[in-house]
Amino acid sequence: MKGRVLVVDDEKLMRVSLEKQLKKEGFFVRCMKTAGEALNHIKNEDYDVIVSDLRLPGLDGIEFLKEIKGVSQKTIVIIMTAYGTVESAVTAMREGAFDYVCKPFSTDELIIKLERALNYKKATSEIIRLRSEIQEHYGHDNIIGTSEAMMKILDTIKTISDRETTVLIQGESGTGKELIAGAIHYNSSRENGPFIKLSCAALNKEILESELFGHEKGAFTGAIKTRKGRFELADGGSMFLDDVDDIPIEMQVKLLRVLQEREFERVGGEETISIDVRLICATKKDLANLVKQGKFREDLYYRLNVVAMKIPPLRERREDIPLMINYFIKKYSEHLRVSKPDISQEAIDLLMKYNWQGNVRELENVVEHALVFSSANGIDVQSLPEHLRRFESKPGEIPLDLKDKDKIDYQDAIAEFEKSLIKWAHKRANGNQVHMAEILGIPRTTLRNKMLKLNLS
Ligand SMILES: Nc1ncnc2c1ncn2[C@@H]1O[C@H](COP(=O)(O)OP(=O)(O)OP(=O)(O)O)[C@@H](O)[C@H]1O
Ligand SMILES: [Mg+2]
Fold first, then answer.
1. Residue nearest to atom 28 of ligand 1 (CA)
2. Rounded distance, CA 441 to CA 457, Å?
3. Ligand nearest to the CA of 175
4. Whose CA is nearest to atom 25 of ligand 1?
5. Most exposed of 7, 107, 247, 323 (fewest Cβ within 10 Å)?
């Protein structure tokens, strides 16, 4: 059995056909006519996924969604919407739906979404324990994201946590490297051991050596007593070595020895100290490239790169942005002790299209800012920092900032460009779709399909 699915739709034809086809695919399927019926049912029986129509008699889909979350946080909800109501689908996503399909849809489309939902559920339920650990020990409460890239990362965390392998996490600033390193540690059998962090950025050889390996009394001027290094402190646990590319080349041999032999001497000491530490490293740079340039030892690189995790920048997984916005609004409104404000569609659109050089950290800061500057109506474009408002590209301009790029996501870029063309036509034609299609020289159905695909309503 692939998973337990509950279909809620008042249309009989829909129920019958989904039940038949999903069963054939190996899902366990039950169907209900109304939200009320379904709510009663899930109080007694667990489902992995609920596929619900957005428009239901009695309780509508959004209300239903909230009620489901009240009964079972773990149940994933996929919403079915009618053509032309994508906007309400977005509302549903904001309220915690996992995904949506637009009617009419093919069963294959739904099956792909169901499988994605089940994979996500599997990955997250394994790390629910880990999340509460992190919250307790580490001050982080969640790894948010349902993009394919994030799901792969969650999956890798799950697979490797209990192995002893060294991990190399690569990603731009603010992408969540430290968060993920913590997740690996707190989900491993070392969870009760220490999690020790050190950034190698801009530390000279002497300081770094003494930080990592400790020193004996009198080893150098100022060493007035023996001090344990981070490796010794991490014994029995994990060590997170950030900006590992910045380790001076002459120190790299010593690190290599720790990795190979699990032993070292303190600076100025003779006693060989053995340790049991798992090493998790992070870098913002392309280490393989540094190896080529002779700035990083090849043998060390291979030792570190046993398991490599690449965290894509936020602008390459924009589908995670709404969930993150929601998460940070919740986090900061609790923090500021205000009730959770609404956020306007325009503000979300802008946040989704901004190019986030500072990644999740920058998004988090922007949401915090927006909360402080929200009005009685909640968060809208005016609540966002000025540089974001200025980013809102004027119609007619290509909304891409290629200045600091050496690589782009082609499909993303094209989608951005199409969006700006359609918005331009929208303005020109005062929203009249027949006229818009004329201006753009494409059939109206093509225009409509594009708008749906690009989430333009
Ligand atoms: N997937 C995510 N879900 C929720 N919060 C996230 C996620 N990724 C990052 N964050 C948050 O963004 C902020 C930055 O993350 P983190 O410090 O882990 O990034 P980093 O890659 O280590 O950054 P740097 O390279 O600058 O050290 C943190 O507050 C973190 O909790
Ligand atoms: Mg970091």
1. 361
2. 20
3. 1
4. 173
5. 107
Query: Nearest-CA neighbor of 321 among 309, 310, 312?
Result: 312
Nearest CA-CA partner of 311 in 345, 245, 361: 361
Q: From ligand 2's centre to the CA of 402, what distance in Å?
A: 25
Tracing tokens 């159905």 back to the chain, one arrives at 445
Pick from 357, 361, 362, 367 the residue to mutate for probing ligand 1's pocket: most ligand atoms within 8 Å of its CB.
361
At 131-184, the pLDDT tens digits run 444 444 433 347 888 888 888 898 888 888 878 899 999 999 999 999 999 999
Residue 399's pLDDT is what?
A: 56
Architecture of domain 137-311: 3-Layer(aba) Sandwich (3.40)
Where does ligand 1 bind, in terms of residues with CB under 6 Å?
Answer: 140, 142-145, 171, 173-179, 284, 360-361, 364
Q: How far apart are CA 385 and CA 202, in angstroms?
A: 31
Contact 321, 351 (CB under 8 A): yes
Residue 143 alpha carbon to ligand 1 centre in Å: 9
How many CB atoms within 10 Å of residue 383? 23
Residue showing tokens 């609790």: 334
Ligand 1 center to 360 CA (angstroms): 6
CA of 385 to the centre of ligand 2 (A): 24
Rounded CA gap, 34 and 11, in Å? 10
User: In the chain, which segments carry CATH 3.40.50.300?
Assistant: 137-311
For the stretch 275-325, pLDDT in tens is 999 999 999 999 999 999 999 999 999 999 999 999 999 999 988 898 899
Per CATH, domain 316-453 is 3.40.50.970: no
Residue with tokens 């359609």: 422
φ/ψ of 434, rounded to 5, equals: -60, -45
Class of the CATH domain delimited by 4-125: alpha beta
Q: In b/e form, how buried is each residue of 125-163, taking b as 16+ CB within 10 angstroms?
A: ebbeebbebbeeebebebbbbbbebbbebbbbbbebbee
